[in-house]
Design a protein that fits this description.
Structural class: mainly alpha
Distance between the termini: 53 Å
Order of helices and strands: HHHH
Helix content: 55-70%
Number of helices: 4
Shape: flat
Number of strands: 0
Strand content: under 5%
Length: 102
């Protein structure tokens, strides 16, 4: 899905990544502002992360002539790993606190 969106539609890797990022943003908005099934929203987000990661990875390591940044695979992997760690830290789930005082 990511390769088709990037290559066959003419959007390129950055454009395709933005499409999947927008899909994830819409899914997050649906989570916070609708009563849609949380299970469905989870699976939608789960499915969208694969093509997003693939297009971001391709954007980072493909040659400039192909629309990428021409960095090496280890550097691309490190960038994605850092972004994942930042996401985990920023969006970590906080435990619910009891509203009762003792």
């Amino acid at each position: 899905m990511g390769d088709w969106t990037a290559d066959d539609t003419g959007l390129g890797y950055a454009g395709a990544a933005l499409i999947f990022l927008a899909g994830l943003a819409l899914t997050a908005a649906a989570y916070f502002w609708t009563n849609l099934s949380r299970a469905w929203l989870f699976w939608i987000a789960f499915i969208l992360t694969r093509p997003l990661g693939a297009t971001v990875g391709d954007f980072l390591d493909k040659p400039v002539a192909d629309g990428g940044l021409a960095s090496s695979r280890p550097i691309a992997s490190a960038v994605i790993a850092v972004l994942m760690i930042i996401g985990i830290i920023v969006f970590r789930r906080r435990t619910a606190r009891s509203s009762r005082t003792t």
